[in-house]
Amino acid sequence: MSTLRDKIVLPISFASGIWIPAMLLCCIPWVQKGMLYLHWVTFWPGKWLTEPERAGFLKNQVSPFRIPTKDGESLFAWLIAPLGVYSKNAQSFIEEKTLQGDIEETTSFRLLKEDPLARLLIYFHGNAATLAQDRRTEEYRSYSSGASDKIFVLAFDYRGFGNSTGSPSETGLLNDAEAVVEWALNTACIPPDRIVLLGHSLGTAVATGITYQYAMLPVPIHFAGLILCAAFTNSGNAFTAYSIGNTIPVLAPINLIPSLQAWFSRRMRDTWRTDQRLVAIAKQSDRFRLTLVHAENDGTMPWRQTELLFTSTLQAATAGDVPDLRVIDLGEAGKQEIWENNGKSISKLIAKHGDHDTMMKWSPISLAVLESFALTNVTSATPPRE
């Protein structure tokens, strides 16, 4: 895909000149916001927000509820009980009455809060659609499958998405992420070492932003892991790397002119500097577990964006020294590189297949969740070095 893009599609995009009006259009703030977040796009299955059973869940396995933010918005969320927990408490789930959003009275909440071994995966979805999009509901089930008696999933819609109030912005989405994490820490009372943050596409920027916020506190809070799937370095690069229909990189010619790329990036209202935030975390934190995953055939966001994040974060963590990497050949599943040192772990898996969305339902992501929660004795199914 990258060869075709570089040799054929990119020159055509450059020669056509379409990128020039597209670039100027994307400098208009309201167009920029609409294209970055796509919060106005909702696919039909994603409308089943209050009917999770229609997405394949058992009765009351999902508890819909709302989380208030500090700036007055209301976020729609799902707390999803794993199948193993449900099966052991099936009668309680089935007999539970609809409580109209009173999450603390639900069976799911009680079992999550009272179990000292329970883990919570907070899911930060990408742009467009809602937390109930059919693909995303399949993902929630897969992430707890390796430890279905332990891993609960908390999914939510950012402001302006689905049934959440407000309009999206970088500051707003970081307020949303803070509200969700505060709910997990202080309402559900889950300690941070039993919480993993998983972001996909746009969600990688949000998850990184909130991880940075807590890591930079006077008394830092470190989560069990941060998993970023199909990430991008910053919003300026995301716009110029993005391909319409996984095929046409309309703004890609901007990358051929560094000064123009810099000019365009300065026009971004919401910058989402994941690159800078990861570097700061890697320098400041004494405990940090980062997992980067990207597919080579991702036609929406090129995997080189993850390569750049891995390189810059690793350089920050090692203070520029040559890192001792473990390189693992996973065959048709791709290649993984892992660096570990004194409580820090940074790994990158570049998968050969899976494109932008499909890989989110595949085993490598579920295994990364287990590893972050310390629920497996293997590191990406690979024995330790002798």
Number of strands: 10
The level 1 CATH classification is: Alpha Beta
Tell me what the CATH architecture is: 3-Layer(aba) Sandwich
Strand content: 15-25%
What does this structure look like?
- By secondary structure, the chain is an alpha/beta fold.
- The protein has helices spanning 2-16, 19-26, 29-37, 83-88, 90-95, 107-114, 134-143, 170-187, 202-215, 235-241, 258-266, 274-284, 304-317, 363-372, and strands at residues 62-68, 74-80, 119-124, 151-156, 195-200, 225-229, 288-295, 326-329, 335-341, 344-351.
- Strands 1-2-4-3-5-6-7-10-9-8 form a ten-stranded mixed beta sheet, sandwiched between helices.
Which descriptors would you attach to this protein?
about 375 residues; alpha/beta; Rossmann fold; 10-stranded mixed β-sheet; 14 helices; 10 strands; globular; disordered C terminus; transmembrane helix; membrane; hydrolase activity
